[in-house]
Amino acid sequence: MAKIKKGDLVQVITGAKQDRGGDRGKQGKVLEVVDGGRRVVVEGVNYITKHNRIGQTQRGTKTGGIETYEAPIHISNVALVDPDSKKPTRVGFRVEEQVKDGVKKTVRVRVAKKSGKDI
Question: HSE of 116 in the Cβ direction (CA atoms, 13 Å)?
């Protein structure tokens, strides 16, 4: 089970500070996990500009130009946000046994290390 998943609230913990134009300290939602779980795309973090060739569609509308979007950052540069304190925390796991229709099943639950709350 991955420590960071799509939809989690994470905080950038490395890089340049915000007053110097960086993203350290920013919080955002994980939009997707890419590259086999090694990189994540975070909402509002690591914006880059891409220049696309200008073209035309069949109707005559212009496409292309300068586009900005979020680029992936390494998963080690973000930390999950604790649901209680809204600060970054490490992730642990707790193993629980659930009984459903008379069948026992072990389930791993993600837990915030700082507060001990389920994520």
Answer: 0
What is this structure's pTM? 0.83
Q: Where are the beta strands (DSSP E) in 5-81?
A: 9-12, 27-34, 39-42, 47-56, 62-70, 73-74, 78-81
How does DSSP classify residue 36?
T
- The pair of structure tokens assigned to 118 is 């389920």
Q: Say if residue 118's pLDDT is above 80.
A: yes
Tens of pLDDT, residues 94-109: 999 999 888 999 999 9
**Residue 82: both structure tokens together:** 């604790």
- Number of helices (H), then strands (E), in the chain: 0, 10
Distance CA 69, CA 49 (A): 7
